[in-house]
Amino acid sequence: MKNQEEYLKNKWFQRWVASEGDDEANKYWENWMKMNPHQVDELKESRDIIRSISFQKYKVSDEQIDSSWSEVQNNITEGYFNSLFRNGLKVAAVLTFLISSLIVFQYYSTDRSFNSFQENSSRYVVKHAEKGTKLTVQLSDGTKIKLNGGSKLIYPEVFCSDSREVELFGEGYFIVAHEKERPFIVKSGGISTTVLGTKFAVNAINPDQVQVALVSGKVKVENTKLSESDSKCMSLFLEPGMKAVYSDKCLYQTKIDAIMDLGWKDGIIAFENSSIDEVVSRLEQWYGVSIELKNSGKISNSFNGMYKNETLPNVLNSIAHSLNFTYKIKRNAVYIEGH
Known about the structure:
Layout: H1 2-9, H2 11-18, H3 23-35, H4 40-52, H5 62-77, H6 80-84, H7 91-104, H8 106-111, H9 114-120, E1 124-129, E2 135-138, E3 144-147, E4 151-156, E5 164-175, E6 184-188, E7 191-195, E8 199-204, E9 209-216, E10 219-223, E11 235-238, E12 242-247, E13 250-255, H10 258-262, E14 268-274, H11 276-287, E15 290-294, E16 303-308, H12 312-323, E17 325-330, E18 333-338
Parallel strand pairs: 5-6, 15-18
Antiparallel strand pairs: 1-4, 2-3, 3-5, 4-5, 5-8, 6-7, 7-10, 8-9, 9-12, 10-11, 12-13, 14-16, 17-18
C-alpha cells in the first residue's frame, strides 16, 4: 500500500493517469519500469484503477465519500474484488487506495478538470548525456548541472513556489543557486539530497550504491528506502570535503577522494583497484563505445591509473600493457583479448 500512496502524490503519475498521450509522462514511467521491474504490475494496476474512476466529472462531497465506503463494502460481500484484484492485494489496502483516490483528485474535479491541471502545471524536461559526451544544463533558478556520459536529468521547466526538485539517473555535478526559502532536492536511487545553495556531486550510476560528495556548503542526505524506525540509517548532514555513501540500504560518510569522486568533471578518468569488468564499463561510458571481451580469465583483474583528456587508443595502450591483453578498434566497437 505504501507504494500506491506514493504514486498518488507523484505529479508524473497524475499526468500519466490524466492523459495517455502525454509523451513525457509515458517516457518517464517507461524508464521507471525498466529500473523497477518487480513493481510494474502494481504500478499499472494503480493507474488502471484511477482511470476507471470518472473523477473528471465527479464532484466529491463528504456524503458521497461515505456512500462510496458503503458501496465498496457491499462489493466485497458480493465477491467483486476477488475478481478485480487477482494479484492478491489485501482488501484493506484496496479500500484505502480507492477512497484515497477520490480525496486526492477531489481538488481537480471540483475546481477544474484534471486535464486543465495538466495543461497549467509546469512541463517537465528530460536531458540525456549520451555515452562519450558531457552535458551542462542550466535550470530556471540559475542552478547549473554537469552530466557525465550516460546520465539523465529530469526537471520542471519552472520550479513551483515552495521547492525545487529534480531527479538524476547516473552522475552529475551541481552548482545550486542559493534560495533560502526554497530548498533544492535531488532524488537519485534510494536517497534524497536537500540543499539551499552549494556545490556537490552525485554518483547514482548504480542506484544501490549512490554517493554524494560535498565540495562547499552543507547538504542533508536522506535514505528514502527505510522507515523512520530505522533511524540509524535514515539521514546525515555533510560538511565540505565529506561524502555520503548509500550501500546495503544504509548511509554512512567518509572523506572525498578528489580524483575518484570529482575528477570526471575536469576530464579525468581514474581507476583504483578496478576489475576488468569495471574498466570496461567505465571506458564504455566515457568514450561511448561497446567493448567485447575474449579470454577474460587470462586478463589481470586489478588496475590503477589516471588519465586526463586522453584519447581511447592511448588509454587502451596503457591498460593493455598492465593487464596483459591486446585490442582492436573498429568504428565504435573495441575487441579485447586476454593472453
